[in-house]
UniProtKB/TrEMBL annotation:
InterPro entries per record: HMP/HMP-P_kinase_dom, PM/HMP-P_kinase-1, Ribokinase-like
Naturally occurring in which organism (per UniProt): Actinomadura fulvescens
Catalysed reactions listed for this entry: 4-amino-2-methyl-5-(phosphooxymethyl)pyrimidine + ATP = 4-amino-2-methyl-5-(diphosphooxymethyl)pyrimidine + ADP; 4-amino-5-hydroxymethyl-2-methylpyrimidine + ATP = 4-amino-2-methyl-5-(phosphooxymethyl)pyrimidine + ADP + H(+)
Top-level taxonomic group: Bacteria
Role summary: Catalyzes the phosphorylation of hydroxymethylpyrimidine phosphate (HMP-P) to HMP-PP, and of HMP to HMP-P.
SUPFAM superfamilies linked to this entry: Ribokinase-like
PANTHER family given in the database record: HYDROXYMETHYLPYRIMIDINE_PHOSPHOMETHYLPYRIMIDINE KINASE THI20-RELATED (PTHR20858:SF17), PHOSPHOMETHYLPYRIMIDINE KINASE (PTHR20858)
Pfam families in UniProt: Phos_pyr_kin (PF08543)
Alphabetic keyword roster: Kinase, Thiamine biosynthesis, Transferase
Chain ranges of the Pyridoxamine kinase/Phosphomethylpyrimidine kinase domain: 16-258
Record-level Gene Ontology MF annotations: kinase activity
Pathway(s) this gene product operates in, as recorded in its UniProt entry: Cofactor biosynthesis; thiamine diphosphate biosynthesis; 4-amino-2-methyl-5-diphosphomethylpyrimidine from 5-amino-1-(5-phospho-D-ribosyl)imidazole: step 3/3
Protein name: Bifunctional hydroxymethylpyrimidine kinase/phosphomethylpyrimidine kinase
NCBIfam families (alphabetical): HMP-P_kinase
Length: 263
């Protein structure tokens, strides 16, 4: 008997040489959750537990060729975007994704966990105008909310205003990640009418490299597996919370979450 292939999920992001975030985290997450991960590499980073020492973006032609190769032959039940680096790459990816019928999860990566910039300043406009309108779900952290909208969230009461401002840019759903607020983390999922709030314990663990990539990839994986958006976010949050709790030291800086914590 010929086995049925698992649901296919495509990540379009940067490569993390340290293995904790980016393409590497995305593919580990997809495998752990029972999907087949595929990749379009948009940039290559020199990166370790201490930070990002440099990055080099691929050409739009190289990114478009990878997209066409995967989507024209294999297809995808969901797509996740991460580090896209430049205006040209954001526009290239957005143009192609507008033709894809699968849900798109956009992680609007602006900086690394260590504070290193991963997006050219002039590319923020392209993210707003081209990428967010094709997103099924966008998952900004509070820094990225401020970068996209100018709104600075100081406490949980500001999450709704932030969600409304990001929603106005065109995505179907917005997930505002409140992990950098004081107290236990609260995330807000919003579709313009209904909001869902997600809470989780704050683990005493500094090894959290790759959490944003992992969450977005987990959401995409559960969408590919057939969940609706609120259910996919609920399941993805549970997976990431476990991965953070199991995070481990690696190198001299911030270690990664454990993508295989459910083993």
């Amino acid at each position: 008997m010929t086995p049925n292939p698992p649901p296919r999920v495509l990540t379009i992001a940067g490569s993390d040489s340290g293995g904790g975030a980016g393409i590497q985290a995305d593919l580990k997450t997809m495998l752990a959750l029972g999907t087949h991960g595929m990749s379009v590499i948009a940039a290559v980073t020199a990166q370790n537990s201490l930070g990002v020492q440099g990055y080099w973006e691929l050409t739009p032609e190289a990114v478009r060729a990878q997209l066409d190769s995967v989507l024209d032959d294999i297809g995808a039940q969901a797509v996740k975007t991460g580090m896209l680096a430049s205006t040209a790459l954001v526009e290239t990816v957005a143009e192609r994704l507008a033709t894809v019928g699968a849900p798109v999860v956009v992680d609007p990566v602006g900086v690394s966990k260590h504070g290193d910039s991963l997006l050219a300043p002039d590319a923020v406009t392209a993210v707003r105008s081209a990428l967010l309108p094709v997103a099924t779900v966008v998952t900004p952290n509070l820094y990225e909310v401020e970068q996209l909208t100018g709104i600075k969230v100081a406490d949980e009461s500001g999450l709704r205003e932030a969600a409304e401002a990001v929603k106005a840019l065109g995505p179907t759903w917005v997930l505002i990640k409140g992990g950098h607020l004081p107290g236990d983390p609260v995330d807000l999922l919003f579709d313009g009418t209904t909001e869902h709030r997600f809470t989780a314990p704050r683990h005493d663990n500094r090894h959290t490299h790759g959490t944003g990539c992992t969450l977005a990839s987990a959401i995409a994986s559960h969408l590919a597996l057939g969940s609706d958006v609120p259910t996919a976010v609920t399941k993805a949050k549970a997976y990431v919370t476990g991965a953070i709790a199991a995070g481990f030291p690696l190198g001299a800086g911030i270690g990664p979450v454990d993508h295989n914590w459910q083993r």
